[in-house]
Write a structure and sequence with these properties.
By secondary structure, this protein is an alpha/beta fold. It is built from 3 helices and 7 strands, in the order ββαβββββαα. It has helices at 40-55, 127-142, 146-150, and strands spanning 16-21, 27-32, 67-71, 90-94, 98-104, 107-113, 116-120. The longest helix has 16 residues, at 40-55.
Length: 151
Amino acid sequence: FSAQNSIMSRVIGMCIGVAVSLQNDDLTTAVVEGADTMKLREFSRRLRRQVELAREGVDQARQPASLILTSMTSFNIPHGIPVIVPPAVATLLLSSPQKKVMLDGDKPVYREFINLSLTIDHRVMNGSSAGAFLNEVKAKIEGFDLKTDLL
């Protein structure tokens, strides 16, 4: 992550790790190398393959991952505190979607929200950079365009 121009600046060769639950309450990490250069479709395909390998017992947990993604969506957990798994420098947790009432003008409407929680290694990143990173992730999620971002 870099504070120059954009917090989510491109880091060539960035590896993203994704937490994968296994039987017997075990947990491992599937690592996608070069995630920064992929469109969503390619990243999804590669991630599915890496998750399959992790569940088949191929150890990827020792591969360097700059950022670990973890999700509590399948457990209906609205928020949590992610743990950093070295050598990663940060872990981003996505909570399960929660419906909240908001006003659209004067009319109450339901909207779905997810909470994002980020734990960082302060030896690598400071809190203000982490906050700016989360704001940029939020903006990217809110501005996501399936047609543009998928291909």
